[in-house]
Design goal:
With 84 residues, the chain is of the alpha+beta class. It contains 2 helices and 4 strands; from the N terminus they run βαββαβ. The structure holds copper (II) ion (CU).
Length: 84
């Protein structure tokens, strides 16, 4: 897989989100599933202890705000720590 260096903002990017409201493994699993099912999301990994999600996504299909929106649609609050 080739990685473009933020050329036109299109290509696979990685964002780190801080997530509030998770209290157990099913919370993190739900968020992980919700993100992973979204078209354009290549990989989602949620860390319960760190209260973070690391998401690889196709910037041509969605943006970090969409990722936060998905997390809040299932009842948690997400803040972008590192948009890349
Ligand atoms: Cu829970």
């Amino acid at each position: 897989m080739t990685s473009t260096n933020q050329t036109d903002g299109v290509g696979p990017l990685t964002a780190t989100l801080s997530i509030e409201g998770m209290h157990c493994g099913s919370c993190s699993a739900l968020i992980e599933e919700t993100l992973a099912e979204q078209p354009g999301v290549l990989e989602a990994s949620v860390d319960l202890d760190e209260a973070r999600a690391v998401v690889r996504f196709d910037a041509g299909q969605l943006g970090v705000n969409d990722l936060c929106g998905l997390v809040s649609s299932v009842g948690y609050e997400a803040t972008v720590l590192e948009p890349t």
